[in-house]
Amino acid sequence: MQKAPDTPIRLSDAAMQRVRHFLSSDEAAVGLRFGVKRTGCSGWGYAVDLAREQRDDDTIVDVDGVRVLIDAQSLPLISGTEIDFVREGLNQQFVFRNPNAAAACGCGESFTTDDVADIGA
């Protein structure tokens, strides 16, 4: 486990409220897992889920009392990201403002970074 040097992730008030709701509804959850996975036409998609275990390569970030677990591969791609939760009519979703994203695909499923070739799959 690594401790993040600075807070690499921020949660808006709306996202914090939503995450705390999810965490309180699952006693086995140890925090929020946030990372990326290979997907879509641009290369990387966000992966957000409740973490039920802490892995050896996780960086643990405390965001106002919420533990966010980030794997080593994902950290450089999402460091500095703000997670928001927005509601528009009947739709609601997490929205990511990632300063590392150089481009996103047209459908919004994935993104790429300038140094995507430096990160393993």
- Can you name the CATH architecture? Sandwich
Biggest sheet strand line-up: 1-5-6-3-4
What's the CATH topology name?
A: Hypothetical Protein Aq_1857, Chain: A
CA radius of gyration is: 14 Å
**Fraction of residues in H or I helices:** 10-25%
What's the overall average pLDDT, rounded? 85
Class of secondary structure makeup: mainly beta
Residues in β-strands, percent: over 45%
Low-pLDDT segments: 116-121
Give the class-level CATH name: Mainly Beta
Outline of this structure?
The protein is mainly beta.
Structural notes for this entry:
The protein has 121 residues and is mostly beta strands. It has one domain: HesB-like domain (Hypothetical Protein Aq_1857, Chain: A, Sandwich). It contains 2 helices and 10 strands; from the N terminus they run E-E-H-E-E-E-E-H-E-E-E-E. A 5-stranded mixed sheet has the order 1-5-6-3-4. Strand 9 and strand 10 form a beta hairpin. The longest helix is centred in the N-terminal third of the chain and has 12 residues, at 13-24. The chain is globular, with a radius of gyration of 14 Å. It starts with a strand and ends in an 8-residue tail after the last strand. Residues 116-121 have low confidence and may be disordered.
Note the main attributes of this structure.
121 residues; Hypothetical Protein Aq_1857, Chain: A; 2 helices; 13% helix; disordered C terminus
